[in-house]
Structure formats: C-alpha cells, structure tokens
C-alpha cells in the first residue's frame, strides 16, 4: 500500500516534470514540514507546501487544468498565502491529500532570498527548503540566505506599548458591542483579533522565560510545545460560546490572562507595563457589564 510520504513524493515528481516544460514556471521549492528533517518534521497529517515562481502569476493562478497532470483531485480554490503577499492554489487530491501551491512572481525572488525578506518569509525559509526546480540558477544561494534570517526576538518598549494598547482598546470595543447586542461581532473580536494579540505576547513571554533561542514557531504552530503551561491551561477558559453571558465571562478571563503574561514579560525584559491603563479599562468594562439589561 502506498504510504503518505510516497504519495506526496509522487505529486512532487509529477508537478516537477510538468513544470519543466512550462516556460512561465521558472523555479519551485518545497517548504514547511515536508522540507524539514528535524524540529517537527512531516507526519501522516502534514500537507505539502510548494512555492512556485512564475513570470506571469495571474495566468498561472487563473488556470487549473494543469492540476490533472499531477494527480486526480476533488477540489481546488485560491486564497492569499500564509507567508509573503502572494496567492496560493490549494488542492485537495483524492483520498484527502492536500497541497498548497504558493505562487509568486519571478521578480520577487531577489527580495525573498535577501535579508530584507518579510519576517514570515524568513521564518518559513529558515526552517528548511527543498529546491525541486531552478531553471535560471536563482536558488543556488537559498540555503545560505535562509541561515542568515533572524529568529523571533523580544520587543522594544514601543512595540510592547503598541500591542498592550491594541489589546485593551479592543477589549472596550468588544464590551460595547456586547451592550449593543451584537454578540457575534463581540465574540469574533474577543476570540479572534484579541486572541491573536494574546498569542503574540505569549511568544514574548516564552522568550523572556526560556531565552532568545526558545523556538516559538510562527502563528500558533506547536503552541502546546512552546507556551507557558499556565497560559495553555487558562486559555481553555478564555474562549466563549455564542452566548452573551459566556462572552462577558471569556472577556474578563482574557483580560486577566493578558495582564499576567504581559506583566511577567515586562518584568523579565526590563519593560514597563501600563498597569494604570489596564485598571481603567477593566473598571470601565465592569461598569458596562454591571449595567447590562439582558440578565
């Protein structure tokens, strides 16, 4: 029986064979878990990520006939890439094998392989790549470039203040939406936008506690491996049901957890936490909560 790894290697081989004959396609590489040999390499649940550099991205993205050259598939669609500012064609092949073809212009290569590459691109390349096509010999310095990309670092006071203010502002915004009766809007902000800020400060917290070499990955990848156990435990209570009372509850939990993590980060990093602003925001939200008419 064909293994998961063998099936993905087959797709890589067929895509490469097809791409070699297409003048528009100039280079391609595998990134993500299937390009890593250590630090959480691919398992049976991992997808396949292929970055493709083409002269005419619009033409490539608008055509999906070529997918049949790689394997039989169930569906395909387009969405923005998770790293960089390109678009990707996501393909779900038969039996649930999923492949993301991230498409960039050939002219983007120089920037992506330089020290000025966007942080999310640097993070992706740093973890490993496998070049599968390089018609113009543009990727020869890729491994060297990837090794020079910086890891995550602790914030400056300005960056820290920006994140704290952003979080607290949206806590008030969420409470106001709750009072108006826009429960889904409030939940979306509290469980989406605010949680993204909570995760970011949790990364800084992990670096402050474990040191600059502690790997916090990107986004929420492997969160359960790198985050403080207290954050993991408390975060279970910081999400809400689609219910007014529970959204209020989760909002207060989120405020408390954010303060705990941010204050510890500030103490360990020589930063100042705006405790007075946090107190004022919390009291204001408590007043809104106590005056609600729906309970």
Strand and helix map with partners:
Elements: H1 4-20, E1 25-31, E2 48-54, H2 57-62, E3 73-80, E4 87-93, E5 97-105, H3 109-112, H4 119-126, E6 130-134, H5 142-148, H6 157-180, H7 183-210, H8 223-226, H9 229-235, H10 244-269, H11 275-290
Parallel strand pairs: 2-5
Antiparallel strand pairs: 1-2, 1-6, 3-4, 4-5
Explain this structure to me?
The chain is of the alpha+beta class and 295 residues long. The protein has two domains: 4-148, Beta Polymerase, domain 2, CATH 3.30.460.10; 157-290, Four Helix Bundle (Hemerythrin (Met), subunit A). The chain contains eleven helices and six strands. A six-stranded mixed sheet has the order 3-4-5-2-1-6. β4 and β5 (97-105) form a beta hairpin. α6 (157-180) packs parallel to α11 and α7 (183-210) runs parallel beside α10 (244-269). The radius of gyration is 23 Å and the shape is elongated. The model has no long low-confidence stretch (mean pLDDT 91).
Descriptive keywords:
295 residues; alpha+beta; Beta Polymerase, domain 2; Four Helix Bundle (Hemerythrin (Met), subunit A); 2 domains; 11 helices; elongated
What name does CATH use for the topology of the largest domain? Beta Polymerase, domain 2
Mean pLDDT: 91
Helix and strand sequence: HEEHEEEHHEHHHHHHH
CATH-level-4 superfamily name of the largest domain: Beta Polymerase, domain 2
**Beta strand %:** 5-15%
Seen as an oligomer or otherwise, the chain set is single chain
Helix content: 40-55%
At the first level of CATH, the class of the largest domain is: Alpha Beta
Structural category is alpha+beta
Contiguous runs where pLDDT drops below 50 for at least 5 residues: none
